[in-house]
């Protein structure tokens, strides 16, 4: 049994907010609403509302009860119900403090409330306890990247990728590659984002990110190839147009740069790409 949060953040680095609790036993309780727990030793009594609105009682072992509390805590965090989340985390820790999921859930809780030192401490505890949990390492890498601790972040991503149980390898490569872009580490970004495209050849963020990395590495043929594939599959964005402008500038196609720049300023005047373009003498 395992409980793991799989977190991703900002659009440039982590595209969607995604949290997963892996627990097959809990999935069977889909139509059941938890009412209360009465904890006694290693066995827990749980009162639930049944389908006919009658109150039924069943017993659960402590580990199952702790997992249920963790699931509630994460759901409360997603709803920004911070106090209720903390209460359920504390109850889970009181029931079964050493199961996979307690320390990493605390890490996410502290990250959510801006207590980065406590979050870091909880992540380090989680990876010590469960070094083969790739989800924890991926989440820790994402957290470190947000703190601009890029080398440490990449180490966690690489350890997650090399974990045999990792069934989200492409996702971890993406996080590592996009984090490397933040660090202007173009060769590392190129390495990871190429791996993403081996799994998903038309992945939008990987295509655009790899085009940027190849541009900075003066691989204009590669940059043009990735951008052309992107443009065939997806609508134009300020970011894709800005990458194209930079490619043409490096290729010294200055008339095209001017024309594309006018399109950028006209169509996306308030975008970060337009602001950056306006700040440069292209």
For the structure shown, list the relevant keywords:
282 residues, mainly alpha, 3-stranded antiparallel sheet, 14 helices, disordered N terminus
The strand count comes to: 3
Strand content: 5-15%
- The helix count comes to 14
- The helix-and-strand class reads mainly alpha
The coarse silhouette is elongated
Task: Explain what the structure shows.
It is a single chain. 62% of the residues lie in helices and 8% in strands. A 3-stranded antiparallel β-sheet has the order 1-2-3. Helix 6 packs parallel to helix 8 (169-182). The protein has 14 helices and 3 strands. Residues 1-59 have low confidence and may be disordered. It has 282 residues and is mainly alpha-helical.
Describe the structure concisely for a colleague:
The protein is mainly alpha-helical and 282 residues long. 62% of the residues lie in helices and 8% in strands.
Reconstruct the topology from this structure.
Layout: H1 24-27, E1 33-40, E2 43-49, E3 55-61, H2 62-78, H3 82-95, H4 102-112, H5 116-129, H6 134-146, H7 150-161, H8 169-182, H9 186-199, H10 204-216, H11 220-233, H12 238-250, H13 254-267, H14 272-279
Helix pairs in contact: 2-3, 2-4, 3-4, 4-5, 5-6, 6-7, 6-8, 7-8, 8-9, 8-10, 9-10, 10-11, 10-12, 11-12, 12-13, 12-14
């Amino acid at each position: 049994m395992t409980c793991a949060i799989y977190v991703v953040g900002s659009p440039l680095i982590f595209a969607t907010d995604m949290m997963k609790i892996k627990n097959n036993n809990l999935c069977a309780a889909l139509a059941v609403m938890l009412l209360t727990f009465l904890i006694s030793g290693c066995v827990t009594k749980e009162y639930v509302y049944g389908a006919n609105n009658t109150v039924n009682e069943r017993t659960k072992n402590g580990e199952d009860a702790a997992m249920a509390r963790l699931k509630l805590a994460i759901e409360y965090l997603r709803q920004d119900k911070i106090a209720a989340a903390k209460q359920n985390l504390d109850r889970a820790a009181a029931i079964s403090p050493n199961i996979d999921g307690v320390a990493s859930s605390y890490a996410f809780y502290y990250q959510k409330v801006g207590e980065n030192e406590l979050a870091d401490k909880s992540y380090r505890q989680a990876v010590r306890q469960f070094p083969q949990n790739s989800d924890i390492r991926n989440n820790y890498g994402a957290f470190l990247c947000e703190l601009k601790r890029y080398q440490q972040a990449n180490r966690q991503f690489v350890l997650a990728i090399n974990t045999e149980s990792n069934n989200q390898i492409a996702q971890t490569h993406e996080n590592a590659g996009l984090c490397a872009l933040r660090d202007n580490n173009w060769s590392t970004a190129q390495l990871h984002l190429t791996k993403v495209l081996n799994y998903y050849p038309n992945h939008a963020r990987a295509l655009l990110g790899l085009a940027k990395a190849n541009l900075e590495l003066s691989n204009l043929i590669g940059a043009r190839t990735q951008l052309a594939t992107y443009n065939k599959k997806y609508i134009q964005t300020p970011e894709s147009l800005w990458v194209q402008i930079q490619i043409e500038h490096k290729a010294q196609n200055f008339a095209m740069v001017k024309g594309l720049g006018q399109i950028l300023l006209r169509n996306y005047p308030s975008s970060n790409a337009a602001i950056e373009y306006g700040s440069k003498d292209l």
